[in-house]
Amino acid sequence: MAVKLEIDTRPKFVLAVVDSLVMIRRSSTHIIRNTDQLLGTFFQPIMFLVLFTSVFGGAIATGGGSYVNFLMAGIIVQTIAFGSTTTAIAICNDLQKGIVDRFRSLPMSNLAVLNGHVVSDLFRNGISTIVMLLAGLVIGFRPTADFGEWLTIVGLLALFTLSISWLSAIVGVVAKSVEGVQWLTFVVIFPLTFASTAFVPAESMSSWLKPFAENQPVSHMVDAIRALLVGTPAGDSILWSIVWSLGILIVSIPVAAWLFKRKTTQ
Amino acid sequence: MTKKDVVIEVEGLVKSYGDTEVLKGIDLTVERGTMLALLGPNGAGKTTTVRILSTLLGFNAGAVSIEGHDVRSEADDVRSVIGLTGQSAAVDEMLTGRENLVMMGRLYHLTKESAKARAEELLEDFDLVKAAGRPAKTYSGGMRRRLDLAVSLIATPPVIFLDEPTTGLDPRSRIAMWDIINKLKQNGATILLTTQYLEEADQLADQIVVIDGGKVIAQGTAKQLKAKIGKDRLELTFASDKLFAAAKKALGKKLLDSDDTERTVTALLKDTNVDVRQVLDILAKEDIKFESMAVHKPTLDDVFLSLTGKQTDSSEEKA
Questions:
Q1: Helix axes A85-97, A112-138, angle to 10 degrees
Q2: A19 contacts B92? CB cut-off 8 A
Q3: Would an 8 Å CB–CB cutoff place A187 in contact with chain B?
Q4: Which residue of B has its CA nearest to A261?
């Protein structure tokens, strides 16, 4: 052997961070190379935005303001929620293809595989959101947010993305196949995004659905983002959306890590 | 006896899934710089053993240590001295060959520069330079295996597990893989190889352990195992049914076996020198001419058949 190998001797927690960075890079490369998925990342949000504004725009009463101003927050949050499926699919794929065995035979941090997928999801969602905002501007979206509000929006959306991706990671670990992932996330994400204030105000919903729609995490997040974007009344939605997201994170990270470890040491 | 330099030590290894015991007390020792082949049919427990030895799987009883590190309590120490390749490992299909190597190098905690330099060296060694910039999913079966093996060698681990490294490869790729494995051994690596091919164990390994149904049923060098099963055989083929029948009659109880369709008779040789002459004398006396003659050494296939009572390739139902 000609090459002299140097081992990175930095402390263990630094190496754990390096492991995660390596895995984030891997997952991000996957996203960039997966052309079909990448096209979806760009066009799905634009399609939703245009369809919803032109189909429902005239019929939905949003209490003043244009529908596209009302819809923007909803469509951003919905896209992130739907997009979290890719985290689950990526983890499920890894587990099925045996590459996780290889990773686990290395002296690397256990959480790095999950970290890689979750954090790269953050990048992908960032791109989607920017695309949507730009498309929105073209069709008449007029945000009123100031700099501080934009920062809060970025922070809230990042927190929301992380929490829902970790939740999705659990699905990815538990599911036995990619089809299973799609089915599982569909039954969870679909009702959460549609029975919410994302597309219509809660006042217009059936009386049995209204209490759910007003108090579930997606609605809080949508209300908070909408308030920050176009100045609708925020109420305590910002606080609630932070509480929900942190709550989900605190529960789902250890659960996902535990399930992952259990699944891979059987 | 001199003290041996044991690198892989397994004692009384037991593993069950629910009520099913898949390993029923396996003992193995592999000394530094040698290669041990774990030989057995599908479902014998080969992959389970490798997964346990490479810290991927827990077990129910026994003790396993690699380079003196316990696989359970010192898993990270074990992981930094082993390389795993074969059916239970894999490469990242979306990444290029080069990216796979650098990534794994970083995860072994090589510095960035070392990982890159070592990746180039391995691409060269494994004849993957031309394909280095292509995603691994575009690789042929043989190229994938080479990349897979290269990846497990990125940090030059002193202990290497090869889990059925040639299963599913065409004959040319298999021989290329054997060359590579032999080189690893020459460079001083300690290797545990699993295989269902007797020829492979015979060609590569210093020691062979035959397992079946989760138990060790025989061990030794290829030579010792063959000796255990016995003697050379003389095989004679005849040009016509008439000669064949005459030969069968003349040889009488010297005959071990005969094959009507091939018109061959087989005689067991207790002492090759004496017995070959005797058989030929008998035939000469009766003026029975044979078409061809061959002396067969026992193969590991014979060993396997006599130990397990089944053919090596007819064990699919156990998988």
A1: 150
A2: no
A3: no
A4: B56
- B314 confidence band (pLDDT: 50, 70, 90): very low
When computed from its CA atoms, the radius of gyration of chain B, rounded to whole angstroms, is 24
Q: Read off the pLDDT of each residue in B98-103 and give the average, rounded to a whole number.
A: 95
Interchain proximity B99–A29, CB inside 8 Å: yes
CB nearest to B114's CB, from A5, A98, A102: A5
**CA-CA distance, A196 to A188, in Å (whole number)?**
13
Res. B220: pLDDT tops 80 = yes
Report the candidate in A34, A168, A22 with the shortest Cα–Cα distance to residue A103.
A22
B269 beta partners? B232
**A255: pLDDT strictly greater than 60:** yes
Indicate yes or no: CB of B56 within 8 angstroms of CB of A98: no
Confidence of residue B316 (pLDDT cuts 50, 70, 90): very low
Q: Name the amino acid, one letter, at B29.
A: T
Which chain B residue shows the shortest CA-CA distance from A105?
B79
* In contact, B127 and B105? CB cutoff 8 Å: no
Residue-level pLDDT at A194:
84
Does pTM surpass 0.95?
A: no
B258 contacts: CB under 8 Å, gap ≥ 6: B244, B248, B264, B265, B266
Name the residue type at position A37: Q
DSSP letter string, B216-244: EEEEE-HHHHHHHH--EEEEEE-SSHHHH
Terminal-residue alpha carbon distance, chain A: 37
The beta strand positions in chain A, using DSSP E, are: none
- For A216-251, the pLDDT digits (tens) are 888 899 989 999 988 887 888 889 999 999 999 999
What domains are defined for chain B? 6-226 (3.40.50.300), 231-297 (3.30.70.920)
